[in-house]
Amino acid sequence: MDLLIRTPRPSDREELADIYLAVRRQTFTWVDPSRFKHEDFFSHTQGELVWLAEAADGAIAGFMTLWAADDFIHMLYIRKEWQGRGVGTALLATLPDWPRHRYRLKCLVNNVGAKAFYLAKGFAVTGTGSSAEGEYEELTFDPSRQSA
After folding, report:
1. Where are the beta strands (DSSP E) in the chain?
2. In the chain, how many domains are there?
């Protein structure tokens, strides 16, 4: 698949907020959908690095954000019609020094598809916790645990 991974332009921000809202409402079915707001994207990404995946026709397939100070992948959201087509893998490959660097993220326990994706990419469960959206597992990608 031909994808361009790039940082967003100011004109992309509204569409990224649309993706964030739509994917959360489609995926987190156990949460009241009225809790998710379009403006959440803008407050939830403050201070984060953002990359988006753009298809050859200019469509934005998804995006990823990183809180660089902690090597924490905060968001990886792919439009439903693009899931399972390599977009998440392409976005992970954009991370600085991937796959030779350690990264962490939180994945809601009920989000079984996402957890399966991360485990397949070499992440391992390293902790647990609770959030407003439910129980989560901390997943860590540790290059020292990857097979050569």
Report:
1. 3-6, 49-55, 60-67, 72-78, 103-108, 123-131, 134-141
2. 1
Q: Domain with 7 in it: what CATH number?
A: 3.40.630.30
- Alpha carbons 139 and 122: distance in angstroms, whole number: 10
CA gap 86, 120 in Å, rounded: 13
Q: Residues 1-35: pLDDT tens digits? A: 689 999 999 999 999 999 999 999 999 999 999 99
- Residues 80, 42: Cα–Cα separation, whole Å: 21
User: What's the pLDDT tens digit per position in 94-111?
Assistant: 999 999 999 999 999 999
Token pair listed for 31: 């949460």
Q: What is the pTM of this model?
A: 0.94
Q: Which of 39, 40, 51 is nearest to 3 (CA)?
A: 51
Query: Whole-angstrom Cα distance, residue 99 to residue 56?
Result: 26
8 Å CB contact between 71 and 51: no
Structural domain of 136: 3-145
Whether residue 61 contacts residue 76, with contact meaning beta carbons closer than 8 Å, is answered with: no
